[in-house]
């Protein structure tokens, strides 16, 4: 189709040109052919030795066969996948066994044209195809629809370790051979087929992870690791093949969270910061995945495959911090020693002391566990060259167990009771503001606040 369209475009260009242009175009190929026909010059004597190819380059074995490996083989396999499909597809292939690019499957396919990844807690989790919501995308594993643990049909890709997949094909147009096509598109995750490998293979990957700046909460370490091991083999006749793989992920992460609530002038000329919060968030993701495949092909007519996949994904998030009002209306807070700046015609306090501040301490402990199980049995029997009988049985389940624990704590009596403790804060500075109509509050678009000191029962010094 593409070649025909290009030929038409060239034909129109020749017809639209002048006679001289047509004559010149006819002479150019003749010149190129004459140049191609000339024999190449002999290389110098010192260039006769064949250089050793770099990793990922082509190489020639003893039999004279050229073998392509590494990233070039990955690109070649992706192009072949697209070439063999009858539909409009995008494809990504692993560079080698257990070496699909990027940390997760979602990050690998998010670079394909028309696809975008949505990140949750810093990791790519779900995929949007052609701008549609992820709900309109169907996800398959070896051609079989997968159950989702989300609140809709959008499958969370971080439950599928990239080390256990061989390729991913994204269908952008309907295909009668695919069951459960999505409105926006269909993503087919494919594991390795043992009989497609030339020889038995063992692959082991091990990497370390360090969360720089993490470890603010002692519950979660800032060290992690990920590793995988896969074995692929077959019998001597290459009629029976098997593959098994295991992948583990232990990934820490953190977020330093600060927020300034709003500014108010309380009837005066100066707007002061009237509420802040500061939290230290740490999280830990632990995922275990197991893949198994048994493939049998005794002849060119019969082909049977059994696929089994299981994964468990644990997420633990800890959040500790404080939040407080610093208003005259709520806590009777007073401000002194203010330094002000004028922004968009309004006067803001950028530094000073706030007295009678009562912080509220907050602690969150959130845990979630997802368990995914999928099994499939596929049989193909080729009756004639044009008739094939196919039977496929599959089962997929996904279980989600989630717990949110959110606790608050304060200190001292309330506002109108005697003996209320006093706290002092300083160094509050708005980074940017935007103007609002007269009488409305001024809200900062970005701000930074430091909890500098506290008296009588404060929980220590906290700095953002």
From TrEMBL:
Keywords: Receptor, Signal. Residues 86-185 form the TonB-dependent receptor plug domain. Residues 35-58 have a biased composition (Low complexity). The keyword Zinc does not apply. Pfam families: Plug. The keyword Transmembrane does not apply. Residues 422-439 have a biased composition (Polar residues). Residues 1-34 form the signal peptide. Residues 35-65, 410-441 are annotated as: Disordered. This is TonB-dependent receptor plug domain-containing protein.
């Amino acid at each position: 189709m593409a070649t025909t369209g290009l030929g038409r475009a060239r034909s129109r260009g020749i017809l639209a040109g002048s006679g001289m242009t047509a004559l010149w175009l006819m002479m150019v190929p003749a010149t190129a052919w004459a140049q191609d026909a000339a024999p190449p010059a002999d290389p110098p004597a010192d260039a006769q030795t064949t250089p050793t190819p770099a990793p990922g380059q082509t190489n020639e074995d003893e039999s004279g066969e050229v073998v392509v490996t590494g990233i070039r083989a990955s690109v070649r396999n992706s192009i072949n996948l697209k070439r063999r499909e009858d539909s409009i597809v995008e494809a990504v292939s692993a560079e080698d066994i257990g070496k699909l690019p990027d940390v997760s499957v979602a990050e690998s396919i998010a670079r394909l044209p028309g696809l975008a990844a949505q990140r949750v807690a810093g990791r790519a989790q779900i995929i949007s195809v052609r701008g549609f919501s992820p709900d309109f995308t169907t996800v398959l594993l070896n051609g079989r629809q997968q159950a989702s643990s989300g609140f809709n049909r959008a499958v969370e890709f971080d439950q599928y370790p990239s080390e256990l997949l061989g390729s991913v094909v994204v269908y952008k147009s309907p295909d009668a051979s695919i069951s459960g096509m999505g409105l926006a598109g269909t993503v087919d995750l494919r594991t390795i087929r043992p009989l497609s490998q030339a020889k038995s293979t063992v692959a082991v990957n091990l990497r370390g992870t360090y969360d720089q700046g993490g470890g603010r909460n002692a519950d979660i370490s800032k060290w992690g690791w990920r590793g995988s091991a896969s074995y692929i083999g077959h019998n001597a006749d290459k009629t029976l093949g098997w593959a098994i793989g295991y992948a583990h992920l232990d990934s820490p992460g953190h977020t330093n969270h600060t927020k300034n609530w709003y500014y108010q002038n309380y009837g005066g000329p100066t707007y002061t910061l009237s509420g802040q919060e500061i939290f230290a968030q740490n999280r830990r993701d632990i995922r275990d995945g197991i893949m198994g495949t048994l493939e049998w092909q005794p002849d060119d007519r019969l082909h049977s495959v059994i696929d089994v996949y299981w994964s468990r994904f644990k997420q633990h998030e800890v959040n500790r911090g404080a939040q407080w009002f610093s208003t005259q209306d709520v806590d009777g807070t007073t401000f002194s020693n203010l330094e002000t700046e004028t922004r968009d015609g309004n006067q803001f306090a950028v530094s000073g002391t706030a007295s009678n501040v009562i912080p509220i301490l907050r602690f969150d402990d959130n845990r979630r566990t997802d368990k995914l199980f999928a099994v499939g049995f596929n049989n193909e029997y080729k009756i004639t060259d044009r008739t094939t009988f196919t039977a496929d049985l599959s089962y997929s389940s996904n279980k989600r167990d989630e717990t949110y624990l959110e606790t608050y704590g304060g200190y001292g009596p309330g506002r109108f009771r005697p003996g209320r403790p006093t706290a002092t804060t300083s160094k509050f500075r708005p980074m940017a503001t935007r103007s609002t109509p007269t009488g409305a509050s001024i809200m900062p678009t970005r701000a930074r606040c430091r909890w500098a000191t506290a008296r009588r029962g404060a929980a220590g010094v906290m700095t953002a």
